[in-house]
Amino acid sequence: MTVDLVWTPFKTLLRREIARFMKVAAQTVVTPFINASLYLLIFGVSLGQKIEIGNGLPYLAFLIPGLVMMGCLNNAFQNTSSSIIASKFGGDLEDLKAAPIRSWQILAALGIGALVRGLMVAAVTWSAGAVAYYAQFGQWLGFHNLGIVLLFLVLGGLIFANIGISVGFWARNFDQLSAVGGFILLPLIYLGGVFFSTDQLPEFWRNVAMGNPLLYMINGLRFGAIGVSDVDWLTALAVSILALAATFGLAMLSLKKGSFHRW
Amino acid sequence: MSLSPLQVTNLVKHYGPVRALNGVSFSVQPGEVFGLLGPNGAGKTSLISIVTTLEKATGGQVHVFGEPLGKESAVAKCKIGWVPQEIINHGYFSTKEILEFHAGYYGVAQADVAIEELLRRLDLWEHKDKKVRQLSGGMKRRLMIAKALVHRPQLLLLDEPTAGVDVELRLKLWQFVKDLRQQGLSILLTTHYLEEAEHLCDRVAIIHKGELRAIDRTEDLIQKWSRKRVQLHLNRDVVLKHADLMSGEGRCWTFMTSQNKPLGALLSELQIEVNDIVDVQMTDGSLEDVFVHFTQKGAL
Known about the structure:
The complex is a heterodimer.
Chain A (H helix, E strand, L loop, with lengths): L6 H17 L1 H22 L12 H32 L2 H6 L4 H35 L8 H25 L3 H21 L8 H7 L3 H14 L6 H25 L6
Chain B lengths: L5 E10 L2 E11 L4 E5 L6 H8 L7 E6 L2 E2 L5 H5 L1 E4 L11 H11 L6 H10 L15 H13 L5 E5 L7 H16 L3 E5 L3 H7 L2 E6 L2 E7 H8 L1 E8 L10 E5 L2 E7 L4 H8 L6 E7 L3 H9 L5
Parallel strand pairs in B: 3-8, 3-9, 6-7, 7-8
Antiparallel strand pairs in B: 1-2, 1-4, 4-5, 9-10, 11-13, 11-14, 12-13
Helix pairs in contact in B: 3-5, 8-10
């Protein structure tokens, strides 16, 4: 029996994380697709025709990158947090503690697993958006710079995966998990420029919005997608990298100090 | 000299003001079944939690095959298999997938052969595609044992492995534990069933209120700390006086005497002739007597 304590535990946990959400793909991939389609239909196709964003682009083109990032962030967060919470509930989180898996292996496997789900949701959301755009304007929505799009999706997905890990270890019940998701993260996402440009806000609120780190991730991706952004994309990149470093530290701390005990 | 599979030295665990373990030391010898006994709250689960690194010790040391155990001591952890007291529910995954993942956590990428062998041995092969919630209580318990063994550990921690299982399964699991010992596995067993410990354990340690109260070979503990019950039925009414006398009058008398004392010696001290005896019933002492001796209120 060959034993490899470097890659095999990491690859196994990653495989488990991906298998976990794929077993309930209707809930983890199809539902976000339906949600995104509804947003596109209501805000993009219907109300969007009456909304001016002032840069010559249709509102639908502005909305699609925001929805793509929102789907990626939400699902990355939900994947790690629900994986940890479910494992606390079932008791198998104790297996990870007793096994010879190192903290970096757990963080990397959970993070990449969540990123895979986030990217899948991002892809189906973009596909739905592209179809809606084609139906309305008779042409496909291309990428301004696909590399920048992927860069911000990876950064955003990993940041929210780290937040999910931290909350998963910190939460003592499902209510606490819901509270963080519903009262903190969701408002930050919605107010991070998914549906609107900060140029349309009064100056005070524009300054408030600039304090929201999610604004930079969403606008970074929007720049890569359509070449339009409320902030300089390099500034957005710097803020996102800082956020990744901070959330990685937080996740590592949660892993070291948090409880692996079953509920 | 072979290294001790588990060496616990002066282990201390405090939960706030509560002292769950207070300087416990013992070692498990290679190839033995070592029983850790104690009433609820004695510190058994705290000790197992420290050995599995779920809890951090307040003081003291744990060595597994000579290696100090810590959070990141991967090589030492590889040598341990752990059967927790409570069933773990793995949600969406099948029995076979659970074992594949568990083997992978311990660095074993290809475990198909070991998984099939274990599942067949534990009568679970036909249920390899079922999820935990679809298994019966006994099957779940066997799955926990399969999980603990899938990476071929050298030290097995069995935390109340037969809690809540029926008699038939309990006997099967006992036989399984004996087979594992024959294969050279060292086993630390905690149990509430003293009969189980007496039946399986080569040596036993009794802990109470976080302290080690007794440790010895099982039969030696019974020999030393329990007393045998002797009931005499005589053919005539007598009046007897003796230090070992428990109860009796007329023709029927009961004594609790040392395990080592021959019946002839007792009869001689009582000045009873063999011809006076209609019947004698003798019941050997048990581990339960020893357990009660060391854990009853005010003991030691």
